């Protein structure tokens, strides 16, 4: 292909040069000039042709050099990306041996204990609960791996419908308020913030994916926050609704900013151990993108982090006064003075 292009350029150049020499000479002779004048004119004609040739060659060589530089730059980027991918895969494989084997060992261990007749019925109930917990942990890991794979392959199905945003956030709030991870963090002020007081908001989006995003972000906040606060909810902006999760945790250091949304990257200094594959943020980034928004964050090391994204106005179906406007807010009912 390249040889054919080079041949075409050479033929075009030869044809133009031939026509130029042939017709320019005939034109000069037809003007009835003296031999001295013809010599001078042909000299300038030669210089003109050489100049055009030089410009033509300069243009071709410059374009080829630009293309070569672009190819080299693309190769360097591809190499960096491949090396980064190898590092992430290595991190995944090293984590997998621990993260998958831990719940599997728990399942097998408690199964053996359940088969031991020397334990009481009360002990067996404890073993059964731990067996269920380890099974759920393993199932979540498998589901996360399947989710990130489907997102990366553009095979994840988004199912949008109308739903009440406040009801969704209330359900998430109660889920975490009663969770074990919240019980471990008694010095954290956990609060749901609704930016529109006494207003019910109906969205047209995917509530399952939206809940998944909030669950992942809140899990991260609890992992990285020992004390202080964890707030989540929404606030109105000019372009729509900003949904957010904010905490006073350890923050994100500068060395992690380029990797924070990469699959299998777990960050540093987890406050509640190193549980998980490091897939939560990658899944959340992908899901938010599929919902038509962009997951972003601001962070200050040792002070906290805020993840947020904006739901466009076109996805807000309605905003109407709440029928429970006179009742005590959710946070006050659960945390009386």
Could you explain how this protein is built, in words?
This protein is α+β, with helices and mostly antiparallel strands. Helices cover 57% and strands 16% of the residues. The protein has nine helices and eight strands. The protein has helices at 2-30, 35-99, 101-114, 121-152, 165-177, 180-183, 207-224, 280-290, 330-334; strands at 161-164, 188-194, 199-205, 228-236, 240-247, 296-300, 304-312, 316-321. It has a five-stranded mixed β-sheet with strand order 2-4-5-7-6. α1 runs antiparallel to α2 (35-99), α3 (101-114) packs antiparallel against α4 (121-152) and α4 (121-152) crosses α8 (280-290). The longest helix has 65 residues, at 35-99. The model is unreliable at 270-274 and 325-337 (pLDDT under 50).
Give a short overview.
By secondary structure, the chain is α+β, with helices and mostly antiparallel strands. 57% of the residues lie in helices and 16% in strands.
């Amino acid at each position: 292909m390249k040889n054919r292009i080079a041949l075409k350029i050479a033929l075009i150049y030869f044809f133009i040069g031939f026509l130029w020499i042939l017709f320019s000479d005939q034109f000069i002779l037809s003007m009835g000039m003296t031999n001295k004048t013809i010599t001078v004119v042909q000299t300038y004609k030669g210089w003109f042709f050489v100049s055009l040739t030089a410009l033509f060659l300069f243009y071709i060589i410059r374009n080829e050099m630009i293309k070569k530089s672009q190819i080299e730059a693309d190769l360097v980027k591809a190499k960096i990306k491949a090396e980064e991918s190898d590092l992430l895969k290595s991190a995944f494989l090293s984590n997998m041996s621990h993260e998958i084997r831990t719940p599997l060992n728990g399942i097998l261990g408690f199964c053996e204990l359940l088969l031991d007749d020397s334990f009481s019925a009360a002990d067996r109930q404890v073993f059964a609960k731990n067996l269920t917990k380890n099974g759920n942990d393993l199932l979540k890991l498998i589901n996360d791996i399947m989710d990130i794979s489907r997102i990366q392959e553009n095979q994840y199905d988004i199912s949008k419908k109308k739903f009440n945003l406040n009801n969704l956030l209330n359900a998430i709030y109660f889920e975490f308020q009663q969770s074990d991870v919240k019980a471990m963090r008694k010095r954290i002020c956990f609060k749901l913030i609704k930016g529109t007081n006494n207003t019910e908001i109906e969205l047209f989006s995917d509530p399952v994916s939206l809940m998944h995003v909030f669950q992942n972000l809140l899990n991260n906040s609890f992992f990285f926050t020992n004390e202080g606060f964890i707030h989540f909810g929404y606030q109105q902006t000019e372009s729509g609704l900003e949904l957010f999760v904010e905490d006073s945790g350890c923050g994100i250091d500068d060395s992690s900013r380029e990797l924070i949304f990469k699959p299998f990257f777990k960050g540093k200094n987890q406050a509640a151990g190193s549980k998980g594959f490091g897939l939560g943020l990658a899944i959340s980034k992908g899901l938010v993108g599929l919902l038509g928004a962009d997951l972003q964050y601001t962070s200050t090391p040792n002070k906290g982090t805020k993840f947020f994204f904006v739901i466009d106005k076109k996805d807000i179906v309605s905003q109407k006064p709440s029928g429970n406007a006179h009742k005590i807010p959710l946070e006050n009912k659960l945390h009386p003075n």
